[in-house]
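Co-fold these.
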Amino acid sequence: MATDTGVATAPRPVPPAPPRRSSGGIEAPQRRFRWAVLSPTVLYLAFFTLLPLVWVFALSMFSYSPRREGAGIGGLGGDNPFVGLDNFKEMFNFSSQSLLTESFQNSVKITLLFAFIVLPLNLLITLPLAVMIESVARRLRPFLRTVFFMPVLASAVAVAVIWQYVLNPQYGLANAMIGKVTGSVTAISWLNDPNLTVFGIPIALLAVTFAYLWMDIGYNLVIFIAALQGIPKSLTEAADLDGANSFQRFRLVTLPLLKPTILLTSVLTMISSFQAFDLFQVMTLGGPDEQTRVLSLDIYENAFTFQAMGWAAAESLVLLAIVLAITLLQARLLRTKWSY
Amino acid sequence: MATVAAAERSESAITVVAPPRRAVPVGRLVLYLVLLISGVVAALPFFWMVFGSFKTGAEIRQIPPTFVPETWTLDNYRTILQDPELPLTTFYRNSLFVAVMNVITTLFMASLLGYIFAKYRFRGRQVMFWYLMALMMVPPSVLMIPNYLILSRLGLLNNLWGLVITVIVDPFAVFVMRQFIMALPDEQIESARIDGASEFRIYRTIVLPQVKPALATLGLLTFMFNWNAYLWPLIVLTQNDKRTIPVILSWYSTQHSAQLNLVMAAAVLMVVPVLVFFLFTQRWIVAGLTLSGGK
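Predicted complex below.
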């Protein structure tokens, strides 16, 4: 455990060579310095990371609300009763009538849907875009990169506020442009119409997805650009000499070399989309009809609006399990596919 | 895979040959056109915000809407700057305090711990390091509930220090600093030790100056991350006079959702100054993001 590591006082094995005048004398200040840094760090980590981790696991096994007095350590007990694994059992009870359960199951479904829309779209945009930017005149590249990277630098709240205006049914840019093209007045209620779907996906979820992609593509873009710059010129030129056209060059040389990068960015994109919160909280607050209520939003609202913190803690552990599963899967894939 | 290997084999032959001619002109033209269009599409929402902030209340409610304002007005900005409910300097000060304090604490702790993890051998080093690395995988939503309860018991809710104290050790920053410091030669440190320099002095005068670029990059990333943070400040800060800019912008846009011209002016005032700063420093931000591949 991390708590007992920094306070290890066992004598350090003295390196045999080179012989020193008095190794103990030289090592004493090092040990003091290590102690001076590590002991407050260990205390800090114990209090602000280990304690919360233990606490969140404990919370998930209670029906806890900070409004109730409770009993015992941290108010866990008394009128905040211990429920064991009931919270988790209830989460996966698919015939439950409880609103909390329905909301959780719905939010997991929406989060999965969101993450699996975001990932392919993100890669389909960023990968060709990176290749295109890298193939134009050198002087133009920083400018182009900046244009796509700017939304990454802006706060997500600003992005959400801008897109609310872009998507406004009456005064928004999106409908105005569609109206221009089709020649008729368009009043799509992007963020508020529960009945509008595309391929069965609620339009509001797609609208937030679009804003999310706009905000997020710059990130993967610069990573792919850096990876492309890392590919030796001689490889692509060899392909040219062998008579490959630019598409073949991309498919047979660039793409295989980018594979590890693509895998890593896919995982990171997926993990962050599983945790998406800001845009949803500002743009839709889960609506219409809970069609955009993602897991992070459900956790936040249950914990801080409805004060159902035991339940929310259990939900957050499900999120943790999902993120850990993806991370471990990635570690496996990277180990086997890294060689080229 | 086979093609790559083949290409690698012919690599040595290529270097002496003049680079072959690239794609045909028509292809170039299409390429530039596609990039131009997608660039314009990417930039449009920003223009939409800026133009919207200069439109009158009547014009912004016009159907169909105008793109560039027909009559430019500064009234929206005047209204925002004079709104007693929206003391911008307070919010800027709050955001700046949190971001700067977090940069200082993160860089200080990360460089110290990075130095120790890179150059010291001691029992428990591995365990402690891997514990930190594992923390990187924990989503913020998992720690926010217990951290909220801890802050409430410490009386630090609705207090800007609450946003500082919870993130003093940033595992990602520790990892980056360790990588950089590991690359520094041991001999330098050893000889300073033999000359009788104290450990802190070695850290300050030998280690720190050599990792300045990494510190600058990490500092910028930390600043940006904290400046733009929303979820945790939203939970901790409960009253407007203590809130940071993203929380206030969200609050204001909800309050004034019918006056989009005001919301856009507020957005411009709250976003553009720092965005310009980030644009000028984006080279280091990009370096920081790509160096890790992690957020």
